[in-house]
Write a structure and sequence with these properties.
Four copies of one chain form a homotetramer.
Chain A (H helix, E strand, L loop, with lengths): L5 H4 L7 E3 L2 E3 L4 E5 L6 H13 L4 E3 L17 H14 L3 E4 L6 H7 L2 E4 L7 H7 L6 E4 L6 H14 L4 E5 L17 H8 L4 E3 L1 H5 L5 H11 L3 E5 L17 H21 L2
Helix pairs in contact in A: 2-3, 5-6, 9-10
């Protein structure tokens, strides 16, 4: 570590972040939901389905950081209301991304966990403001950020006073573009050796390819993560974003059962 | 180009951005100044020195995006006032970075050109707001952004109505960390073949190493750029940021004379 | 796949490579041993220890591709004899690297599997000659080779007539050098979807760090590999090469027991 | 430098390698010719044309390292004879690649400079054998080799006794694959600061794109190189390899005139 990281390196030993009925960092957390909130029907159908098979938290993007300004930019406040409806019906807490300091207050009203996306991992204005609120924050790794830079980004939030930081590995950018993404699982045990912050993996963005989400979910669990965040859609081929990487409801059902089994088994291995 | 880029690709043929007495995109522009504004004395001394040897625009950071929260974060509004004083004394227009949508109005009051830094190249909230103002914007390439992503970021600004976009190549991140940075000059003729937006190079960040700023400035000019942005400090070894890459006043004096000569010569080559 | 890969893509469905009493591609294979063969005592001690806890094949380098010409270059033919002695005593088949076309005949006399190292993955003269022999070949991925280039290298060997190719993922080179290596497990299910060639993982080179070999071995198994190759040394701190990444005998003993358990469990998950 | 590099770092001050009538390292050297030798007619036509406009050395591949075994593998010995014929007619010395230790003797009979290609930069058997011959060697940088690894490869050759090593930067592999290659010109002044070995640039492989070979040739010269190696073909669109990056004869004629002018001008800048 080239920089001092007093807070990240000294998070106390049995650090957990309670969200609803689970303790993130202690209990395995399964976050699932669509890339983008597209409509109430879509979101409700997905929320009910993932709840039924064991998801603990509902994800869904309403402010979308898109490479092109002509791509779908998200439903904004309407999307937050849809998420709230889905949450009330299913009992699932909500996680969604905030991209703009001016939206923090609004998102904070609706969401149970605020997400900082990869492209904003070094948006220091945003990190500083997020440090002032009292809600869990999921901090995704930038797609070309080193482990050290990632932990420094966490330090910005912790320094502001918010100690509820959850890290999320989501793949990095390398020379091999044929198959698009490289999920850096080496980072999991390295992060675990440096800090007690919980860390989860997003195999959907980490692969960009629904056909290998299952084995990479298994690999992530075996590497020691505290949870997974998986994109699930009721009709991936018609999705308004990330069509190639979202699982359909049937795929997620099969996967979620096996995830819990493997997690329990892995715990016995590490005893 | 995978995405439609209507505006970037259709900027009219003889596109120039007037700033003070020069037309960026037609005249060669030399931007110089310290990484960070540290004090009035420091900034004035540097401003006078770079003006005397031919710089056209004064740079200086007041809001600093730093990897660690414990590093110097910039002087903020006080820094803007110092830049203004230096501008009034020397007649040099000012460029400085804006990192936060809430600071745009303030920075816009003081600066002649607003800079979007590498870490914010995909901060789409910021790009959209910058698209609404009527001042030139320097858009730095993200350190792992493809040419296509960079042009899409420019498209966000153009789509907002602001057509005064200047691109700035500043080096990318690759596997070779021993010498730190890779200045991607291939991007210059590629960008030139795709758009008429002016493009300059920042050899200070593009090398991270003052000892090779001179040859890489020459290389950038020979590759066809419209200008250079170079970090210059009156005492680099004591600088509050970027100590290894800033030129001292004597080095800049020698370099600036040669830059103009080479630029003129290169024009004859391309006739 | 940009290139035609007739042979790689058409390896028959239940492709297995018998080595001694196991069928690679069907049975899980655990390869273990020192980075370099250093002496008879060292090699015998390690061979006995890894055999006792379940290793199926003994590895050990005798021709070493070293970045610097001043580093230990391996024992050459003497090393092969030592490996043979260890093999005869323990019954373990031997795998060792061949770097030079002129050494193939010699190595072929002693080794049960010939290894092509990362730096030679695109040494086409070597691949063509290896294609002519009738022994299993372990083809490591180049550290900046794409999946497509890797499969094309396998095609060179298959085209020569040798169908006994085992692939080995060993980590790639990315921008993050602080922790040195990135083990690209995404490649495992991708390779599995494209060919029936067996594929194993080398978590020692894939991490460069003995302290995370265990979790990454688990992750590799969960991702679906056919085996692991792990560097084990009786005294890693005094090793003549790769000191940071070799497990000691005690670490390997613990790991090998858990590996087999996890492999068996993972098979039930995928039924 | 992490490794000791006694020989590379201590090459005497005014190190030059005489080839025919020029002193490489002192005089600017322009190497030109086709990617592959395809026929006597093709090679002779190109050789005459490049000679006429100022090329000093003729290049042409006869042993070709191709990603796919189904791609054109080169004419081998017949190609060497064709090169010899072209050399005798035009007076141009010849450079060609050697990939296999068993071919060194043969290539050495025909070629004036032997080339080690990117894929073989860490083929240490080849480097050691090349170290034993008494002819200039052009050592290309591996496409993901660090500067340190490249200099260590040169050290292997020097240690064998051959002091006539010319380095050649040819672009590295990065995350940006849309435009294919990144020519790392930062390496030129860095190499110049570490050793007195001559260094040239190959802008054809460094760009992969004939349309930007001209500006990148200019940039390379301005960065301080000792020469250029450029692929030229009489009919690039029908070439058996590298169709996108070879210049036609007319393009090369224009470029070669300007190259010399710029080189002379650049020398005055550095006085």
């Amino acid at each position: 570590m080239k920089n001092k990281l007093n807070l990240v390196l000294n998070i106390e030993n049995d650090f957990v972040i309670p969200v609803n009925d689970i303790d993130i960092g202690k209990d395995f957390v399964l976050i699932a939901g669509p890339c983008s909130v597209e409509s109430e029907n879509q979101t409700l159908e997905i929320a009910r389905a993932v709840k039924e098979v064991g998801a603990n938290i509902l994800r869904g993007g309403v402010f979308k950081p898109r490479t092109s300004p002509y791509d779908f930019q998200g439903l904004g406040k309407l999307g937050l209301k849809i998420l709230k409806t889905a949450s009330e019906e299913t009992g699932l807490p909500i996680i969604t991304e905030v991209m703009d300091v001016r939206d923090i207050e609004l998102v904070n009203e609706y969401a149970d966990i605020l997400q900082i996306g990869s492209r904003n991992m070094q948006n220091y204005s945003l990190l500083k403001e997020i440090g002032k609120i009292d809600k869990p924050v999921l901090l995704k790794r930038g797609m070309n950020s080193t482990v050290n830079e990632w932990l420094n980004a966490a330090e910005y939030i912790l320094l502001g006073g918010n100690k509820k930081v959850i890290l999320c590995e989501r793949g990095i950018r390398t020379f091999d573009w044929e198959y698009n993404r490289t999920l850096d699982l080496n980072s999991i045990p390295i992060i675990k050796s440096l800090t007690n912050l919980p860390i989860i993996v997003d195999p959907s963005h980490g692969t960009g390819n629904q056909s290998i989400v299952k084995p990479m979910s298994f690999a992530a669990i075996a590497s020691g993560v505290d949870g997974l965040m998986i994109e699930v859609h009721n009709n991936p081929k018609q999705a308004l974003s990330d069509r190639k990487q979202q699982l359909n409801l049937g795929q997620f059902k099969i996967l979620s059962a096996k995830i819990k089994e493997l997690y329990e088994f892995t715990k016995t291995l590490n005893q």
